[in-house]
Amino acid sequence: MLTAEQIAEFDENGFLKGGVVLSDEEVERLREELDMVMEGKSVKKPVLNRNMLDNSHYGMTITKKETVVQIVNIWMASDAYFEHAKNRTICEEVAQLCRTDTLRIWHDQIQYKPPVTGGPTHWHQDHPLWPVIQPADLVSAWVALDDATIENGCMWMVPGSHKWGNHQRYLTATEDFMPVHKQPQLLPPGAKVEAVPFEIKKGQVGYHHSLTWHGSPNNRSERKRRAIAVHYMPGHTYYAPTGNHPMEPHIHVKPGEIMSGESFPVVYEK
Ligand SMILES: O=C(O)CCC(=O)C(=O)O
């Protein structure tokens, strides 16, 4: 459970480091399952398994060698990942941060940056990239399967940016991957675009709000950078289609209805 101080820190910054939630054995099991799914050897398949950088990413030009393996909904391919999505500590803490008594999986996501050739994940906000659900108050739990450090491409966050609204179309980066707003006059008074590294230890969880600006640079180190993020919906998230998303074929409720169904299982109820 999170303390009142931790919840206040999350509300202020839009992100928070939690504790170590996985043992070394649990991390090892998830790493093995990841290899199996990534290599296409699992019986059941995830929704996506691709190099996220195969095409240009958010308009950036990427050389072919750079790779970020993105697997969406590995929980559908691996029982170990479904169990992970139900992790009691994580779910209790996300429910506290969302002020809800029910959590469903929106989707999960592996981002694996291999040694040396691991590419960037450009600056973004999650909710604008999910133009099928409302409101914009989801919380994600990002668990490192390797120590995520500045050297191997940990995420960076902009404190307070979750309070500034949707600026997705204006986000870009300097040569050294610091965030830049293309039209800063549109930011609220006092908004400071200053990123901080979000280093997370193996087995530790980091939480972020679905409007927090975040991104992660290349992995130029000799170490892997593997992680599993679960994007959780509070009980009140509803279907509001205004754009496309890979999960859309799995949605079988009507616009305005609560996002429920077998592809969006309840993983926590108080
Ligand atoms: O793993 C990363 O570097 C980025 C993940 C991300 O954008 C997310 O979990 O919302």
TrEMBL record:
Q: Extract the coiled-coil ranges from the record.
A: none
Q: What is an example of a Pfam family matching this protein?
A: PhyH
Provide the taxonomic classification.
Answer: Bacteria, Bacillati, Bacillota, Bacilli, Bacillales
The identity of this protein, by name, is Phytanoyl-CoA dioxygenase
Q: Name one GO molecular function term.
A: dioxygenase activity
Q: Which UniProt keywords apply?
A: Dioxygenase, Oxidoreductase
Q: Gene3D superfamilies from the entry?
A: q2cbj1_9rhob like domain
PANTHER family, per the entry: ECTOINE DIOXYGENASE (PTHR20883:SF48), PHYTANOYL-COA DIOXYGENASE DOMAIN CONTAINING 1 (PTHR20883)
Record flagged with keyword Iron-sulfur: no
| Alphabetized InterPro entries for the sequence | Phytyl_CoA_dOase-like
